Amino acid sequence: MPDLMPWGALELSKLKDDLDRHFVALCEDFGLARTAFPEGTIRVAEADGEWVIICPLPGFEPEDVAVTVTGRVLSIKAARKRGQGVGMVRMSQELSLPFPIDQARADLEGGVLTVRLARQAPPEVRAIPVVRKQGREECPPSTEAAGTAETDRSTR
User: Fold this and answer.
1) Residue 20 sits in which domain range?
2) 20 and 79: one domain?
3) pLDDT tens-digit map of 110-137
4) For residues 74 and 95, is the Cβ–Cβ distance under 8 A?
5) Which residue among 92, 97, 123, 129 has its CA within the 20 to 30 Å range from the CA of 80?
6) Is 86 exposed, middle or buried (0-12, 13-18, 19+ CB in 10 A)?
7) How does pLDDT run across 25-81, given as a tens digit for each residue?
8) Could you tell me if 110 and 62 lie in one domain?
9) 108 found inside a domain
10) Within this chain, do residues 67 and 106 fall inside the same structural domain, yes or no?
């Protein structure tokens, strides 16, 4: 299957946008109100080696929003009181990340939350010594050349 290629965030975002457009068109065909299916959802992009998550949060203040990363899951939660009346407005989103996070920062401006995530560097390659095992005891690797009589004895 050499023709298969993994999709990145950009391709998935394009697919989501296409599906959203088709869904809205379908709803309009059945006479359903477009406002019943809001378009203000999370967007994911890649810029300058970082993932950028954009989430519209109109009417929320920075103190109303909590952004956390647990393992490879990004959680965005927002809650605020509803005007002068009784009740709360709550929003919660989770996004599974394909890589561990090294650094993250978030800001809220003009009702739009922007979260920037830096990918954790891959772990360094670590050599593991291979030892020769004789019976139940481990012996340190031989310092003799591979073609010596000692080595040849085991193949006779």
Assistant:
1) 1-37
2) no
3) 889 999 998 887 778 999 999 998 876 6
4) yes
5) 97
6) exposed
7) 776 676 655 443 344 578 888 888 888 999 888 888 999 999 999 888 889 998 887
8) yes
9) yes
10) yes
Q: Which residue has the tokens 């990340």?
A: 97
Q: Are 32 and 48 in a shared domain? A: no
Residue 23 sits in the same domain as residue 76: no
In angstroms, the CA 79 to CA 118 distance is 26
Provide the Cα torsion 17, 23, 26, 30; round to 10°: -140
128 burial level (CB within 10 Å; 0-12, 13-18, 19+)? exposed
How many separate domains does the chain show? 2
CB 109 within 8 A of CB 77: no
Whole-prediction pTM value? 0.53
Q: Are 49 and 113 in contact (CB under 8 A)?
A: no
* Residue 77 CB-density burial (10 A; 0-12 exposed, 13-18 middle, 19+ buried): middle
